[in-house]
Predict the structure of Putative ATP-binding cassette subfamily C member 8.
Amino acid sequence: MSISQLKFGHQNLNSNSIHPVNLRFQSSHIKFKLATTRLHSSTSASLTQPLVPEDKIRATKHNLSPNINRLFDFLPGRSWWDLGEEDEADMVKTDNPVTVWYVLQRIWRLVADDKLVIYIGLCSLTVAAVSEICIPNLLAASVFAAQNGESLVLYKNLKILTFLCFASGICSGLRSGCFGIANMVLLKRLRKTLYTNILLQDVSFFDREPVGNLTSRLGADCQKLSHIISNNLHLIVRNTLQGTGALINLLTLSWPLALSSCFICILLCMIFLVYGWYQKKAAKLIQDSTAHANEVSQEALSLVRTIRVKGTETKEHERYKRWLDKLAFVSTRESVAYGLWNFSFSTLYPIILGGMSILAGHASAEQLTKYVLYCEWLIYAAWRLADNFSSLLQCVGASEKVFQLIDVLPSHQFSAKGVKLQKLRAQFEFINVSFHYPSRTKTPALDQVNISIQPNEVLAVVGLSGSGKSTLVHLLLGLYEPTQGQILIDGHPLKDLDMRWLRENIGYVGQEPHLFRMDIKSNISYGCSRKLKQEDVERAAKQARAHEFICSLPDAYETLVDDELLSGGQKQRIAIARAIVRDPVILILDEPTSALDAETEYYIQELMMRLKNEEKAILFIAHRLSTARAADRIVVMDQGRVAEMGDHETLLSQNGLYARLHRLQNNNCL
Ligand SMILES: Nc1ncnc2c1ncn2[C@@H]1O[C@H](COP(=O)(O)OP(=O)(O)O)[C@@H](O)[C@H]1O
Ligand SMILES: [Mg+2]
């Protein structure tokens, strides 16, 4: 090993650039690297002194031992086969262990409504398999009948053969069609069940589970799981029938040979148990890595403009590559394991040859031919059976997270029957409300907050960013529940109310409004339970100062838009129109004017004053204090607490945080 190579090894050991995936090779590589490091230091010393023979021997030993160690690492059970730990961090836990039986039961429940298709598929599968397994026997008998000139037997056999071929052909087609339909049904129900359950989760669930990960479960994992019906199960039944048929035929020929074939098959099953366990673990890791890769790519592609501006394409590529490397790491081991498993099948072939030599002299040429044909059938049936099982285990591995997600209980807001008040007066109160986000239990986002708002009142909330303003709104919308204290609406605890009904009465404009990929009219009327006419939509758009720019778009209200196609201010105006079109009792605006020009901002303020006179309660979070000025009351938030409260003049006279912020915004000195 040259000095430059040794240095390279040494640098690698110290380098921060050790790839995370390479850490899997730890035990073997660390040994190797420690050896090279030691050698490197001795080599540095030897630059002044020539190597003595003993040093040379030691150096050679050091040089060889890592390679030998690495060879040993390839032995079954050694470190090369270690797939690493599963990513437990984002796991949603359930009590049920995911076994093949468990997965089959769950699948059956999903396809039970269409069991007729599966029964037809199973019947045709049985007929096809039985017909196929009779063919070698009749074929051999026909050939030897022809050789012996027994034309009657030959014609009879040929007739039966023709019938069997037709029967197996028709039933095979029927079988494939039925299981194909069952696969489609399963995939559709699986995705529908999973998607519905995900949509019904608490909002905190989405703080924990990245979107890319969830879409990967919905896409790739469900697809893989549905293969259990379309490929694995029916092929397992088919190959079991054919294998059993072949074994029965072999037993009639020579029972000791048939039993020895059975013994080898049992041995193979035992090897398969170990291989199957490995396969299942590998499949799970592959699914997880695919989900992570999906999550990274989805995030990067949705933020492509930021990436381009920041020039972080290489970094993003590295982030994606990290998961691809992990995928390759696990897939390589899985493929080698598969190769070894397939190799073990070659052990079956000597039985045929051994059996032939035992039978030779004791059996006729016809029996010998049948023996060879059925031995072949048995071997192939066993091989395919194991292959189907290994694929089944992969699917079971992939199914774990899907079923875990299906089993997470939906938000209790959807199951609890809340109270609907006869009339909502829009009077709400925060009483000693404290709250921390489930993902940040140590940092309170709100601390002992007491606020109230009356009908026909405009309440403005101001404060530095991160002071808890949006969190107030999240609690009021019932997206999270306070950890302490309570929120009352018209004197009723918020948690006792029917959330759907309450939200129908709230008009909400979020801090970063998002549009759906649909036309503008549908975007404005989105989520409104009333049937809206074109005039209603246009009136709301006019009030939100959005009508003019909408009319300038190619198809006006029919123009297809999405999050990327409009400016921030335009999206905000559409979101305001969406909030007011439902004629809400409470209007909540979270920094609604952050992307608006001064003129539009003025009109929005005017709109708020008008709505106030219509007995509506308005809570708006203002990023510009000039907007808050017109409010009846201003709440100043600081680090999750209410620091000050009062109207503009009072707060200025108190000379506290509000006055300081006001001076800053007006470019005055402190
Ligand atoms: N989904 C969330 N998960 C965890 N922490 C959050 C979440 N949303 C906001 N926070 C944290 O809660 C605090 C208050 O945030 P927020 O109410 O959005 O502030 P503001 O709207 O005043 O800028 C901040 O420290 C913020 O980092
Ligand atoms: Mg905010």
In short: Confidence is low (pLDDT under 50) at residues 1-52.
